[in-house]
Amino acid sequence: MLNFSCRFCLVAIALGAFSISSFAASKVQPVASPTLYASLAHAAPQLNPQALKSALNAMQCAVGSGARQARHLAVIDYSQPSTERRLWIFDLRTKKLVLRDLVAHGQKSGENFATQFSNRLGSYQSSLGLFRTQESYEGSHGYSLRMDGLEPGFNDRARDRDIVIHAADYVNPLWSQRQGRIGRSQGCPAVRPQVARQVIDKLKDGQFMFSWYPDQRWLKTSPYLNCQPRQVASILSANGG
Question: What's the pTM value of the predicted model, to 2 decimals?
């Protein structure tokens, strides 16, 4: 028969093990489903694997921290030139590619390649990170889509900056023949008029959009890429989930 001190030790060990397991279970792991990643990578072999993994990990962290599941995920790979179709839209239920097309970057982000990004009003630069799409509306550019940036310091002023998805005639491959790039926006991820309605209808009302570039400061401090559940939960709460 165990004496009192031994029984106390066993209880302490059990409680310690329970605490450790509880902490491990509560910690959100920023690792995307291998099956989902494999399916989307197969559907979009030209998409940078690091960009896709980052997008899925950021989304996984958001959902694991309380965000609503989305039907669609858009990924913009700003490491590719504007002359390439660097916008991908995936259906997360069917795990298929819905659309791949051109997308503009901001006037002051760069020429054919975007290399500078900002969250500042009047910067005319694109922003990086995870966005949540919101309502569609008719504006000066016609049918457009608002979105909220979810990353403090990197894209959370998107609504104040009027960063929206809209159609633009300058998103045209013919521009590249004259200027070596397509036209540029004031920071919006503008798309071709021919696909604008399809893009907006797929992405409106609470989908995820993720803009990627190997910016070291963002990669090291993003609360989504370096999944920080408490901070992410606070951000999502402030943005209505």
Answer: 0.87
Neighbouring residues of 238: CB distance < 8 A, sequence distance ≥ 6: none
3-class SS at 120?
coil
Per-residue pLDDT tens over the stretch 149-182: 999 999 999 999 999 999 999 999 999 889 999 9
CA distance 166 to 192: 8
Task: Region of 153 please: left (phi>0), alpha (psi -120 to 50) or beta.
Answer: left
Name all domains of the chain by residue range, CATH numbers in brackets.
34-236 (2.40.440.10)
Other beta carbons within 10 Å of 121: 10
Q: Which amino acid is at 91?
A: D
Q: Is the dihedral of CA 167, 109, 51, 222 positive or negative?
A: negative
State whether the Cα torsion 37-208-122-233 is positive or negative.
negative
d(CA 90, CA 72): 6
Rg of the chain, C-alpha, whole Å: 21
